[in-house]
Amino acid sequence: MRIFSGIQPTGRKHLGNYIGAIRQYVESQDRGDPAIYCIVDLHALTVPWDPATLRESVYDTTAILIAAGLDPGRCILFRQSDLREHTELTWYLSALTAHGDLNRMTQFKEKSAKQRELVSAGLFFYPVLMAADVLAYKAHEVPVGDDQRQHVEVMREIARRFNERFGEILVVPEHRIPEVGARIMDLQEPTNKMSTTGGIEAGTVLVLDDPKTVTKKVKSAVTDSGSEVKRGDGKEGISNLIQIMAVARGTSEDEIEREFEGSGYGDFKGAVADAVVDLLAPVRERYEGLRPDEAALEETLAGGAGKARAIASETLAEVRSAMGIGPA
Ligand code: ATP
Ligand code: MG
């Protein structure tokens, strides 16, 4: 069972990333043979970026992942741009990608609507690069949050089309989306997903926020005019907090509703704030110890890139040969 997932580099990784993705990475690292996790700095070029910050952000995210429990000795952790294979395969796969499929992508529609200057072709091509990331490793499973469901569907379609035309070379991967916590909502706008690049500052709990900030953000979460700690229509804010609490406590949403039956929103939010602080504080503390040693982080990434290249370069050779690229 090969597992692959990518995460964009930023120091602003949030509770949604932690619950929907990072937590799954950590749980999957021993199940994967291997489990491969990639800091996707090339994906970060699809919206405006600052070059110096981007380079730093790769270290931030690497340190966050290790602090959360990824062990580079038990998984492959690397930086996307260290390999040329991902960009090269992107082009080959573009020849098998339906323009109409990319046109339907919700992420493109949402992110392009938010761009004030350039809506880049890179943003449109994001799912093809993502397909290359996964297909280069012939991964069987892709742990992601709910928002990436559509992109995994497109990469499956690309892999099927490739195999039909050129023979069974690629693996058609399956998504792995957690049952609870796959879509954590912005605390201030609970109808939108919590996001690294969109979203509202006060509604986005960062993995690296100090406990006081976490508490303030959770306690100021937008709720509704009712008073019942129960999921339901028009109760997106409370439903979101119930979801977060269930994950933080390692229990079910039903259980949380039972526990807080009769409690007011104020008490409930206070309890959620404490649970989120308990969830994130150890990660933040370990991060503080890891982040300063950039040489060590760089060494970890370089080691991961070597292992990743060994797998991806083999796939690329097969793909090129099957497609008629280069000498026989
Ligand atoms: P952006 O909003 O700019 O795309 P992001 O917050 O989605 O950034 P990514 O690095 O693109 O961050 O996503 C990393 C992983 O986190 C993906 O698997 C994605 O599905 C998951 N994820 C992102 N946001 C959420 C969320 N609100 N709830 C659960 N999982 C999420
Ligand atoms: Mg995203």
Topology:
Elements lengths: L2 E5 L7 H14 L6 E5 L11 H18 L7 E4 L5 H10 L4 H5 L2 H9 L6 H15 L5 E3 L5 H18 L7 E3 L34 H9 L16 H14 L3 H7 L5 H26 L3 H30 L5
Parallel strand pairs: 1-2, 2-3, 4-5
Unreliable spans are none
Ends distance: 31 Å
Helix content: 40-55%
Largest sheet: 3 strands, parallel
Overall mean pLDDT stands at: 97
- Please count the beta strands (DSSP E, at least 2 residues each): 5
H-E string: EHEHEHHHHEHEHHHHH
Small-molecule binders? adenosine-5'-triphosphate, magnesium ion
Strand content: 5-15%
The coarse silhouette is globular
What do these coordinates show?
By secondary structure, this protein is mainly alpha-helical. Helices cover 53% and strands 6% of the residues. The chain contains 12 helices and 5 strands. The structure holds adenosine-5'-triphosphate and magnesium ion. Residues 7-8, 16-17, 19-21, 144-145, 147-148, 182-184, 193-198 line the site of adenosine-5'-triphosphate. The site of adenosine-5'-triphosphate has 20 residues, from helix 1.
